[in-house]
Every structure is written in C-alpha cells, then in structure tokens.
Predict the 3D structure of the following.
Amino acid sequence: MEVRSESEVQVRSEKILPLQGQVIQRTRLKVWFIRVCSSILIWTCLVQLIAVWELYQPRLFSGFGGYTKMSVHVEETLPSPLPLLLARNYTNNGFLQVSCNGGLNQMRAAICDMVTVARLLNITLVVPELDKTSFWADPSNFDDIFDVRHFIASLRDEVRIIKRLPKRFSRRYGYQPLEMPPVSWSNEKYYLQQILPLFSKHQVIHFNRTDTRLANNGIPLELQKLRCRVNFQALKFTPDIEALGEKLVRMLQERGPFVALHLRYEMDMLAFSGCTHGCTVEEAEELKRLRYAFPWWREKEILSEERRSQGLCPLTPEEAALILQALGFEKDIQIYIASGDIYGGERRLAVLRAAFPKIVKKDMLLEPGELRHFQNHSSQMAALDFVVSTSSSVFVPTYDGNMAKVVEGHRRYLGFKKTIRLDRKRLVELLDLHHNGTLTWDEFTAAVRQSHEGRMGQPVRRRVIADKPKEEDYFYANPQECLCEGKTCDDLFGHDNSTAVQ
C-alpha cells in the first residue's frame, strides 16, 4: 500500500477544499435562482387571477340582490370600482396644473371640470392642488381626502393623470408655467380655440382658479357624461373617510329614518353674505369685521334685511325649526346636523332642539378618538357630512351653496332620493306673515307645503337661461344627461317637462 507523506496529504487537501467550496457556492446559486424564478411565476399567476376576478365578478353576481338594470340609477351606494382599464393612447399636447379654490364641494366640481378639459384638449393632468388659503385654512392635500390611486386608474382610458410634473418642468429647474384663470362658464370652443394653442408655446399651463370654468349647458353629451363619471365613480374618498362615514350612516339607520339638515348657519357664510338676522349687535359687528378682513369678499356694505327678503340668506336655526314642522316632520324624527360649528353655538340651536329633541352631530355619535384625525381639517369633516347626507332618508339644505347642489345631484343619481329645495324668498315672506299674526299656523303650514310640492328632488329638466349662467340650474345639482338613456329621457322628464327660459 502506498504511503503518502504528511506533506503530500496537506497539499492534496489544500487543492480539494477550494473545489468543494466552489461546488457548494454553485449549489446555493442554483437554489437562489430557482426560488427567485418560482416567486416571479407565483406572483404573475396571482396578478392574472386578480385581474380575471375583477373582470368577471360583476357579471357573476349581477343576478343577485334583486337589482334590475334601468335607465335611472337606483343603487343605494355608488358603483363598484371598475377593473383596470387600458390606458388611452393619444398624442399629448402638454401638461395642465390646477389649483382649486373654495370649499370641498366647490373643489370637487372643479376637479370634474378640469378632467373634462384635459380630455377635450388631449393634455396630461397633474393631480389637482386643493385650496389651503381660504377662510377654512385646511392643509389637506388631494390624497388626504380622495383615493388618488383609484382616481388615476379609473380614468386612465380617458385621461392621463400624473402625481407630479416631470422634473424638466419643475420650478426648481427654473421652468415657469403660464399662470392664468380660464374664463368662467366657457364651452368647449373656448378651450379648443383659446387655450389649446397656448400649450404649443408654453407646454405647461397652471389654472390658478377653477370654480365654474365650464358651462352648465351647450356642452357635447360625451363631455357631460365624463363630468358625471369623474363625480360619481372616480372621486372616491379615502378608505378612512369612507369607513367612518359609513359607520355614521349605520348608527343613524339602526335608529330609524333620519333627515340630514345642512344648516349653513356658520360664521363664514354669515360674514360672506352679510346676513345677521337673529344675531346680537356684537355678533353683527364681529361678522362685519371678518368680512372686511378677507379681500376677496369684495362686497363690504350689505343690508342684511334686504338681502334676507331677496332669499339670499341661509335660514336661521329658529326659522329652520318652523319650516321643518310646517313640512310635516314629526317631533321624534332624527335630525343629523350636517355642518360645521353653528354661529352662536347651543344658544342658537335651543329652539330647533326643543322642536326636534333627536338632533345629533358627528361628535355626539363618535368617540373623540375617532374624530381626532379629522379635527382642524374642514374639508375632511365636510366629506363625512357628504357621505351621511347622500345616504339620508331626506336631505334639507337651508342655503343653496355648493354642498347643497352637489349632494342634490348625487341623490338624483342614486334614484331621485328626496331632497327638499327650500324656496327661501317665499319662506321669508310666509315666516314674517306668520310672526306678525297675519297667517295662522294652519294657513302657514298649508302655504309652505303648497309652495314646495315641486321642489322635492323629482325628475325635472335643467333650467337654462340664455346669457345668465349664474342664474340657471347648476349642472352638478341636476346632471340630467347622466340620469337616463336615449328615448327614456322623455319618459323620465316628459316631452314638455322643461323650465328653460329663453
């Protein structure tokens, strides 16, 4: 037998050990490679399964729940999110930045308009900036209120929407976009003829005001329907807002029917409108000082009683109590106050609470910790009120501001749910006649009900007033083009059911 010296064995071991290390390393690489490939394959299959599920789920379950497709939308909730759509392929003409102004619902309507303008001009829309400098000074960004991923994905077949401009157009790199407010109440010809040519020169345009920049009427049908699609499908609130809003609705519904009363008797509205009926002298002076403090509230000297007689003031809490009673609401009906802080606090709510003891507000139904995240964010609080108001048995706004109009439109879309549009000019006349003893309670009640028979949210054609867009019916309060299809519009609204003014 061959006997190897100790030195030979050592040399052979030194040669074998590196080879063993290489074999082990290769084995580990193979195992790692197999795991990576397997993971990729599994995730790819999972994504495909999810896509197929989202595509076929509505069809699989469309036969359940007793729902029959009709020309009029009758869902109790907004439609489910659409499956991922193919991105629209088009030549991009530029980038549009927008800074929305006003409160939540004013900005909501503006966002719908700006998406529609972007689609019309084949331009890329940057996710809108929300107003942070208004009376409410709400620091919320778009994605604090709306589900930004759903917003972008649900419209990708119509408009390209991005979260921020490409770096080459950033102000940090010295690029200055063209800043301008588009002309109010403009139709598609204005944007095609006046705005589109500006993109070829500037590439980026920043609209620094966006309220009411698209006309109510005279817009092509496909654009009107896109405005509705953005409003009713793409603009979903964040999951946190949706969940808390739905919790409020459940709590209220478990106790029975409820009225959402949009009591717009808040400091900003009273200061802006100059309405001081029912206020003390000190309160009237405080509201006047506030009006002077904000430069964009241009009308400074306002005659409150004259404004009230014209129907331009929100009803006071005391007036609202009488009107609700006259309309036939029982004492034990639940009333949800959908608003911010009432000017004058509980002192001004005393009469309303005495007439309707079951008055509730957000902070009465929820634990303090549940609302803490939304405190000092007026738009997020307004979003909660929006969810409750669209789901209420009856909606009664005491002023026809943006929330009243947009909620009314949503309730029409959900099957013409009852919305009582108060005729404040007529009501002020009746209230004064009742207070001075001219009208008895029975006469007052009969007059109030008779004057509101046709103001309960029934199907009606939008009122058009030539050359007076501010006075005609607002598109988002009555988006009739989105409430019926083809010939069924005549069945819904009637051939002669029009209040158009020539």
Summary: Residues 6-60 form the longest helix (55 residues). The two ends are 121 Å apart (CA to CA). The chain has a mean pLDDT of 86.
